[in-house]
Amino acid sequence: MTTVNSEKLSSARFAQATDAFVEVFTASVDFDKRMAEQDIQGSIAHATMLTKCGILTDAERDDIIKGLSQIQSEIESGAFVWSIKQEDVHMNIEARLTDLIGIAGKKLHTGRSRNDQVATDIRLYLRSEIEQITAQLKRLQRAILDLAEQNYNTIMPGFTHLQVAQPITFGHHLMAWFEMLVRDNERLQDCKKRLNVMPLGAAALAGTSYPIDRFLTAELLGFSRPSANSLDSVSDRDFAIEFTAAASIIMMHLSRFSEELILWSSAQFDFIDMPDAFCTGSSIMPQKKNPDVPELVRGKSGRVTGHLMSLLMLMKSQPLAYNKDNQEDKEPLFDTVDTLINCLRAYADMVPHISAKKQNMYNSAKRGFATATDLADYLVRKGMAFRDAHEVVGLAVRLGIETGRDLSEISLAELQKFSALITEEVFDYLSLEGSVAARSHIGGTAPDTVQLAIKTARFKLEL
Ligand code: ARG
């Protein structure tokens, strides 16, 4: 006679109890209980649909909804007992529901499987997290706009190859950060479109023989439509990969901001003051003020990109349809969400307290012959070929280096030795103010243009 392990899921099929280690090894409840709210939400919609389709009675539906609401309260108060024996969030909730309401609890799983259930839960979960992320992203964007506004005419050196290239305004530099975040937000919203499709009804893989109404369930859960293919529904995790890719790009951007903040707050640059509340001291060197928050964010960008790689490798080569491999999608996904929200939050809190050391920025722009291109452009406007102008300016820069002066500090007579085309008004072009003001086309660094860019950006952000 075979013995029946009565505690085991799908127990009747099994002659032996699950190995104790395997039970722990295969359980996911420790991490997927995070989706409890979405699991309950999905079950209520499913039960409502089953009732509308005549598969459950009104009384059964009412019991189910009442039981699930109680479970929700138990989870919120911490009274709910999670059990490894019940493997995952779905089985834990269903088992408790059956404890509470009896037979109707056992009917809830009609016409569905954990395969379409889990796919639905993750989508619901991620949809609501994307809203949180978008909110933090917007807070950061507002903070950047405010700082840019305070610095729309603050002159600093712009760099290429980390060498002083041309003068720019700090506001313009910050608006470059802002543009990265605009694209990030677009990517998240785009990801949400493909995410917001409902797998429920695909059941284990082939659909169900019950007369279900998938459009109704989709509507109840706020999905744009039911998914088109049952096999794809239970196995697709593209949305998680897309989201993690979008998150990796955001983190990559934050790591670039971080790198600049770290450089700018060093004694060598000394362009900004970082708020004390976001820095720490050293246990041994009393003079130190370390930019820990940007450094940590820079480090965490690697962690999120790692999660993207995990998810890609997880899905690679999986045959249709659902495989247990997919249980491994959750930890990288959840950690991506947490890391991203925390990093965005830290940045949104920190940026409003960053202040520009305007004089240092200005002096630094003066030191690197940042207006050399302006002198060349001036000569071209006077009729010289660009290559010849390049040569003339090279000579002027050499004189500047040899005599320790910026181009604007070299006298007119000395400049005229390099080219007779040069006249008094050249100094309008050699000044840092003149240089930035001249770049007033759309996308340029002129203070007026930056002010307009900030205004436009603020308007679009609040649309
Ligand atoms: N815990 C599982 C997961 O995360 C739920 C689906 C399990 N389905 C199954 N047939 N074993 O993917």
State the share of residues found in helices, binned by percent: 55-70%
How many H/I helices? 20
- Strand content is under 5%
CATH top-level class of the largest domain = Mainly Alpha
Q: Can you tell me the CATH architecture of the largest domain?
A: Up-down Bundle
Strand order of the largest sheet: 1-2
How does the overall form come out from the CA principal axes? Answer: elongated
Query: Low-confidence segments, ≥5 residues, pLDDT <50?
Result: 1-6
Elements, N to C (H/E):
HHHHHHHEEHEHEHHEHHEHHHHHHH
> What distance separates the N and C termini?
70 Å
**Counted beta strands:** 6
The fourth-level CATH homologous superfamily of the largest domain is Fumarase/aspartase (Central domain)
Q: What's the domain count? A: 3
Q: Per CATH, what is the topology of the largest domain?
A: Fumarase C, Chain A, domain 2
Find the structural class using helix and strand composition: mainly alpha
Q: How would you sum up the major sheet?
A: 2 strands, antiparallel
- Rg for CA atoms: 31 Å
**Ligand species:** arginine
Mean pLDDT: 95
Descriptive overview:
The protein has 463 residues and is mainly α. The chain has 3 domains: 20-109, Fumarase C, Chain B, domain 1, CATH 1.10.275.10; 115-362, Up-down Bundle (Fumarase C, Chain A, domain 2), CATH 1.20.200.10; 366-461, Fumarase/aspartase (C-terminal domain) (Ribonucleotide Reductase Protein R1, domain 1). Helices cover 62% and strands 5% of the residues. It has helices at residues 20-26, 29-32, 36-52, 58-77, 89-101, 103-107, 114-150, 170-195, 214-220, 230-235, 238-264, 292-315, 330-350, 358-367, 372-381, 386-403, 412-418, 426-430, 432-437, 447-461; strands at 155-160, 163-169, 197-198, 225-226, 272-273, 355-356. The strands form 3 sheets. It has a two-stranded antiparallel sheet with strand order 1-2. A two-stranded parallel sheet has the order 3-4. Strand 1 (155-160) and strand 2 (163-169) form a beta hairpin. The longest helix has 37 residues, at 114-150. It is elongated. The model is unreliable at 1-6 (pLDDT under 50). The structure holds arginine (ARG). The site of arginine has 10 residues, from helix 7. The site of arginine (ARG) has 10 residues, from helix 7.
